[in-house]
Design brief:
The protein is an alpha/beta fold and 230 residues long. It has 5 helices and 13 strands.
Length: 230
């Protein structure tokens, strides 16, 4: 399994240079942070108006890279008029599905029940965004389904120190027997920090350095996992 992490400043466009780098990697998965293309000053009601524009930007990325895009988060309006924060999943210029956040980050009407487990590129994986990874019941539900691979899209204020963050995700990997692939965004005020990492039950396999918490980073890793469908 080949995974590309795209750690970026939130509310910033994906540049042509980044598109070129991503396309050259030919990864199975490309991970983007939650809220990467959203204006952090906009309300969910304001952001939902940009749904089509943001999805078009992701399609531009998919045109350059045919693998699976775990494409940050956006706000969308459901048939009943409620608004929800979701992760669009895209592959080879095809919109595949949304993952709807289970634990909202804002006081919006949460009524959708999307899938939490997906099978793509030969891998069965769980997907978490926002505050979902802090909810024990959500983690236990993934564990009961036998999920080994978990992608976490982060882009929120974090009060843990750098060292505490590493310990937090290592402990989670141990407790639930997960291989965790966490992609982070950051803001210019350094309230939201870029601490992308890979945590497994045996330890932290890769992490962004402490001096790179406010840096744009594109990193590709190869990860061998036995029995990905178990």
């Amino acid at each position: 399994m080949k995974i590309t992490f795209v750690q970026k400043q939130l509310n910033s466009k994906i540049t042509e240079n980044e598109l070129l780098k991503i396309s050259k990697e030919r990864s199975d998965f490309v991970l983007f942070p939650a809220r990467v293309l959203l204006d952090l000053h906009h309300s969910p009601q304001e952001s939902v108006n940009r749904y089509d524009s943001i999805l078009d930007q992701w399609m531009d990325v998919s045109e350059k890279h045919k693998g699976v895009l775990i494409a940050g988060t956006l706000y969308r309006k459901l048939a009943n008029g409620s608004i929800i924060e979701s992760v669009p999943i895209i592959q080879d210029l095809n919109f595949i599905d949304h993952y709807d956040l289970q634990k909202p980050n804002a006081p919006i009407n949460q009524t959708s029940e999307s899938e939490t487990v997906f099978i793509m590129a030969g891998v069965r994986f769980g997907l978490l965004a926002g505050k979902d990874y802090e909810d024990q019941s959500i983690l236990e539900a993934l564990q009961k389904k036998g999920i080994q691979t978990v992608f976490i899209l982060d882009g929120l204020v974090n009060t843990r120190s750098y060292e505490e963050d590493l310990e937090y995700f290592f402990q989670m990997a141990q407790d639930y027997d997960f291989n965790i692939f966490r992609i982070c965004g950051y803001d210019t005020k350094k309230k939201i920090l870029g601490r992308s990492l890979v945590a497994t039950p045996s330890g932290i396999q890769w992490k962004v350095g402490k001096m790179e918490e406010d840096k744009d980073i594109i990193k590709t890793i190869h990860f061998a996992q036995a029995n990905p469908f178990l």
